[in-house]
């Protein structure tokens, strides 16, 4: 069976045909590093990790290149730096914020079982590429400098008599309607009210770099140009897959397409545009003001990363997801069971019943249903779970972590179990029942079999 992916641009599921099967290329918009990542940010990380793993499984590990950027220049970073490190010069404070947050992001996504991308470029290391694209856009008549800014003109793009894509095609909007609906109080240096910033002046003390377009004052890039520059540098002018959350379709991805296609005279930037749906918490939009804003870091104190991962993958990536405590508990029980059955067996090939739904536009809910059906085939279950990024630990590690998290003292449990065995041997069933009830009250479930008694922390 072939891989099929849904493309936001053409609004259809199509067979995936890479430009070069020896070098399959994917770009995903990464985090802006100014604060702990929240559980919504974990969704693209996990979803595109599954796709990365599936592509590696299909085309070979050496033949897939996955780029996920780090945005380390942004107003939110500057604000945070000034607030958290008031004693430091702004540039040093910014370095502190981006380094700390970047490290935290890595710790979080490693715990979620996500492979590191092939390249994780930082925006501030690609200023030369941004300037180059900006110069090309000006030379092509798509961009202009005004009052130390450089602006991109969507109208110039759509007026160009060429094979460029139409501005608005990705997000399914009409430029005329955007022009009619735009705010009236547009910045005076903009020629058109839908023109967007490629480059802007830096305020005193802010990070700044020599400007393009003959602008004397130093400046800094707009957000959209960063991704065009990093994708170009690491994947070329035209590549296979571009991903991110659905909120990025407009304006971020629409503008990336415009910049890249106009700078390099391409009909397309990426052949497949993939977007994950949004995550909400207990049926509400996650926000700081509602008090239901949860970071990955906080969740990892209560749940193993693989539980968060499974919980995310139970919903198809394009559907909205409702993140609930009930569903987390269920995911934890499922993983307990899979760890018991499959963690310590030699993995076999992933089962076709799991791989086939994945090939159908990453149908992870169906793949997970198939995993439930593999309980009796431990080797296939193990191989399939590993393909999906599970079973990083042994069964014993998993169980001991659960014990630690629950505060159950394994030594105490063993002592009580020995007492219970002794009570049973002398046929004192009242005492053995009392000990079983005591263990149950401690959150320990026991199972008697002909080989003796085993126990685990009950979920
Ligand atoms: P940001 O740091 O806000 O630019 O987000 C980084 C990534 O997380 C982007 O791909 C966003 O689309 C995605 N994202 C942010 N919030 C959510 C959410 N609530 N649900 C799903 N994805 C999200
Ligand atoms: Zn981006």
UniProtKB/TrEMBL annotation:
A motif ('KMSKS' region) lies at residues 285-289. A motif ('HIGH' region) lies at residues 31-41. ATP binds at residue 288. One of its GO terms (cellular component) is cytosol. It catalyses: tRNA(Cys) + L-cysteine + ATP = L-cysteinyl-tRNA(Cys) + AMP + diphosphate. Binds 1 zinc ion per subunit. GO terms for molecular function: ATP binding; cysteine-tRNA ligase activity; zinc ion binding. SUPFAM superfamilies: Anticodon-binding domain of a subclass of class I aminoacyl-tRNA synthetases, Nucleotidylyl transferase. Gene3D superfamilies: Cysteine-tRNA ligase, C-terminal anti-codon recognition domain, HUPs. Residues 353-399 form the Cysteinyl-tRNA synthetase class Ia DALR domain. It is an enzyme of class 6 (ligase). GO terms for biological process: cysteinyl-tRNA aminoacylation. CDD domains: CysRS_core. Transmembrane segments: none annotated. Keywords: Aminoacyl-tRNA synthetase, ATP-binding, Cytoplasm, Ligase, Metal-binding, Nucleotide-binding, Protein biosynthesis, Zinc. Pfam families: CysS_C, tRNA-synt_1e. Zn(2+) binds at residues 29, 227, 252, 256. Its cofactor is Zn(2+). InterPro entries: Cys-tRNA-ligase, Cys-tRNA-synt_Ia_DALR, Cys-tRNA/MSH_ligase, CysS_C, Rossmann-like_a/b/a_fold, tRNA-synt_1_cat_dom, tRNAsynth_Ia_anticodon-bd. It is found in: Cytoplasm. Its EC number is 6.1.1.16. HAMAP family: Cys_tRNA_synth (MF_00041). Belongs to the class-I aminoacyl-tRNA synthetase family. Monomer. This is Cysteine--tRNA ligase. It comes from Bradyrhizobium huanghuaihaiense.
């Amino acid at each position: 069976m072939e891989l099929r992916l849904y493309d936001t641009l053409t609004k259809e599921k199509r067979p995936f045909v890479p430009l070069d099967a020896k070098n399959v290329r994917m770009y995903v918009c990464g985090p802006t590093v100014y604060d702990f990542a929240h559980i919504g940010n974990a969704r693209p990380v996990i979803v595109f990790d599954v796709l990365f793993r599936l592509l590696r499984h299909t085309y070979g590990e050496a033949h897939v290149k996955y780029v996920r950027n780090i945005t380390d220049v942004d107003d939110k970073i500057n604000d945070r730096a000034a607030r958290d490190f008031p004693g430091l010069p702004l540039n040093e404070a910014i370095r502190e914020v981006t380094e700390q947050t970047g490290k935290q992001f890595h710790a979080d996504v490693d715990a979620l079982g996500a492979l590191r991308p092939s390249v994780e470029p930082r925006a501030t290391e690609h200023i030369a590429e941004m300037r180059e694209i900006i110069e090309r856009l000006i030379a092509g008549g798509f961009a202009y400098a005004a009052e130390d800014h450089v602006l991109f003109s969507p109208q110039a793009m759509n007026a160009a008599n060429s094979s460029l894509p139409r501005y608005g095609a990705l997000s399914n909007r009409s430029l005329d309607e955007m022009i009619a609906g735009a705010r009236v109080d547009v910045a005076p240096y903009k020629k058109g009210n839908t023109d967007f910033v490629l480059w802007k002046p830096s305020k005193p003390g802010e990070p700044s770099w020599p400007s393009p377009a003959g602008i004397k004052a130093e400046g800094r890039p707009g957000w959209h140009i960063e991704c065009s520059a990093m994708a170009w540098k690491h994947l070329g002018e035209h590549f296979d897959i571009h991903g991110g959350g659905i909120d990025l379709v407009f304006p971020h991805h629409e503008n990336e397409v415009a910049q890249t296609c106009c700078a390099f005279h391409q009909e397309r930037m990426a052949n497949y545009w993939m977007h994950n749906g949004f995550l909400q918490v207990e049926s509400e939009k996650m926000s700081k003001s509602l008090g239901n804003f949860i970071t990955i870091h906080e969740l990892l104190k209560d749940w193993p990363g693989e539980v968060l991962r499974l919980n995310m993958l139970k919903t198809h990536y394009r559907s909205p997801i409702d993140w609930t405590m009930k569903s987390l508990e269920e995911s934890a029980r499922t993983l307990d069971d899979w760890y018991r059955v499959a963690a310590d067996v030699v993995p076999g090939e992933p089962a076709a019943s799991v791989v086939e739904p994945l090939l159908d536009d990453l149908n992870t809910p169906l793949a997970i249903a198939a995993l439930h059906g593999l309980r009796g085939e431990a080797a296939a279950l193990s191989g399939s779970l590993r393909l999906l990024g599970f079973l990083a630990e042994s069964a014993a590690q998993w169980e001991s972590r659960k014990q630690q998290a629950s505060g159950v003292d394994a030594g105490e449990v063993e002592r009580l179990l020995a007492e219970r065995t002794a009570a049973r041997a002398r046929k004192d069933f009242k005492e053995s029942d009392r000990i079983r009830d005591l263990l149950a009250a401690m959150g320990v479930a026991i199972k008697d079999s002909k080989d003796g008694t085993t126990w685990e922390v009950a979920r």
